[in-house]
Design goal:
The structure is a homotrimer of 271-residue chains. Chain A is of the alpha/beta class and 271 residues long. Chain A has helices at residues 3-16, 29-39, 49-55, 71-86, 102-112, 123-129, 149-159, 194-206, 212-236, 240-253, 256-262; strands spanning 19-23, 42-44, 61-65, 91-94, 118-121, 162-165, 170-173, 178-181, 265-268. Chain A has a nine-stranded mixed sheet, with helices on both faces.
Chain lengths: 271, 271, 271
């Protein structure tokens, strides 16, 4: 895809400040909100079942993350997804640690029927969503992303969602097309919530898109933008505490020229 | 008010380390605790209904924030407010996103009867507490603070609380007197929790005050101190990640001379 | 103990990346995860009663922190502790603010029967676990650590746990032996969660240990490593916002030579 077309989504987010309704995990709530503010979006963590139905239609997109799922949250998530879907708002699923934990796996599988616009996970999680045997170790993937590429394509065809498998190399597919992205830094895995906040960033980008074709481009743009920001942040700070700070700064300031010069993408000819 | 009188509250907080009991939202819990520690106060996030009645009387003030309200928290908040009030401890209400969301709006209106010492909100929230039609967009105010000044004064007279409307310009009123404060930086809105933590800071300051007249001065002092710290932090760091770090540093170190030189306040002649 | 032997646990954590299952409080969840990532461990905050029984046996250690205990969490904690114990995995108890608050005190006393590998608390908390009258003020200890040394030794003998009392001076005892550690900085108390994250760090270190004798050495190593990292971080940053960032950076990078040169320990001849 043209780098300029991808960056046009960054500009849209900065100009429109999409309101992103997040039901996410307890570990990353603060960081996710700060990432959304840094990119120019507006975070809203409305969590109670009593409120999500009324709030989801007011937002531009909904971001669902299963990282610290419990019973009350499954109910709030179901209510929020139904309300967002009913109002025609796109929603993003981050199936954290799905696979070895049956409670959240069932919740995730159940949610697949509600037509997420995007599913973003690591290789283990994407394979597990297809019923595969890739067992993760908590939140870490034990599989490389390319091992999940087939699963991602099947999952995309089956759910009609754009599917992103992120890791050292990131893959984004709508079932037919596949793009790989090779930006980022290993230090992004040494700060908690970078992946979870990326899902919320995808929701922000998708919240400025109007159809499935744009969801695809918006997802590629969100991942490219975030990983390139990470790559610049590593130049500022090589240790995890200061890297997290630099990452937020870069997310707030990365410009089009630096983005275009740094982007590493490749079209994959599907097998 | 005399800048030196306002700064005397900063000194009190640093010397007495008031214990501030916070029932706040999931997004800002950590940042709020770090802000309180930075100014020299002692945060205590005791949240269970089973514990708040015993704990609230031990604290110097209670800070209530409705940002991620759910049913169990409404019960814990009610119990904590009753216990603090019963023990003669001041409490502060931050009615986050009240207005478009009926569940929290009802909770906030119900709490108004329990005589908060201070109510701090943005313009939309303060207007909504009076039953007005200013609809916010999640946590963001869509109204300018001056549009809420009349509502703030009426609310203060009706509840006997000091009411603070914060935004680009901040207003503090006890119903009769109004002071405007014009310090701060737009970057304070690009870090999640700056406003929520400000409410907890108000509680810390009010926790060193002994009567309604002092609540008024303590609220002005807390807002002036925080916004001036923000103004200095922007000189240290112009992007949101590093700004948040610099803000905590400035809250911990801002001295009287810098405070007095930077303070921009004005008495408003009420209409 | 030999400094090189203590540092061998740091190396183990970096090489093995122990998976640490944490049920901790809402204030420190993010910071705890980032501390664990900084030292090279893998955090996993699986919190629902429906999931903890299945997850605890997959982890290398379990870290329990009572800071924002509520009824659902008491059940999840009980389930997780039983599952970890049943699978032979060590667990660490951080009895935050036990003493003045009966609800969490009962929970903590009940958990003592389930054989924690390590108990880490401040002086007030350790004295309170023995039924003593040291009343803390929220999360702050009002007693010096040496006042709790006798209580720590009795508690260690009674529970068979390694007991650590942390403060300006830290004491670690298994009931017979006592070591004091005198590294660290007062600034560590101006950032929320440093103590709570230290308990999780102890769990990470203990997760690489194989018997009670190693639990003892691993606990000393975890506290020594963390406090020395804090001492170096203060040299980088003298104010709390930037200190927190520097602390994570130092946890990720402190080398053996700096560790050995800085360590201040002393064997205490028990009375």
């Amino acid at each position: 895809m043209l780098a300029a077309d991808l960056f046009s989504f960054v500009i849209r987010v900065r100009e429109r400040a999409p309101l992103v309704h997040c039901l996410t995990n307890l570990v990353v709530t603060n960081f996710t909100a700060n990432v959304l503010l840094a990119i120019g979006a507006a975070p809203a963590m409305v969590v109670a079942r009593e409120e999500v139905a009324g709030f989801a239609p007011l937002a531009n997109a909904l971001s669902i993350n299963l990282g610290t799922l419990d019973v009350p949250q499954t109910r709030a998530i179901r209510t929020a997804v139904d309300a967002a879907s009913g109002a025609g708002k796109p929603w993003v699923l981050d199936p954290v640690a799905v696979g070895p934990l049956p409670f959240r796996t069932e919740c995730a599988l159940d949610l697949l029927d509600s037509k997420p616009a995007v599913i973003r996970g690591n290789a283990s999680e994407i394979i597990s969503l297809l019923g595969g045997a890739a067992s993760g170790r908590g939140v870490d993937s034990t599989a490389a992303t390319d091992a999940a590429l087939d699963a991602a394509q099947i999952l995309a065809l089956r759910t009609q969602a754009v599917v992103a498998v992120t890791g050292a190399t990131d893959y984004v597919t709508d079932g037919r097309r596949v793009i790989s992205l090779a930006n980022g830094s290993p230090l992004m895995t040494r700060v908690t919530g970078v992946g979870c906040a990326l899902s919320a960033t995808v929701a922000a980008f998708v919240g400025t898109a109007s159809d499935r074709d744009e969801f695809w481009a918006a997802t590629v743009a969100a991942i490219a933008y975030s990983t390139i920001a990470g790559e610049f942040a590593v130049r500022d700070a090589a240790l995890p505490g200061s890297f997290a700070v630099a990452y937020l700064d870069r997310l707030a300031s990365l410009d089009q020229k630096a983005f275009e010069k740094t982007l590493v993408q490749r079209d994959i000819v599907s097998g």
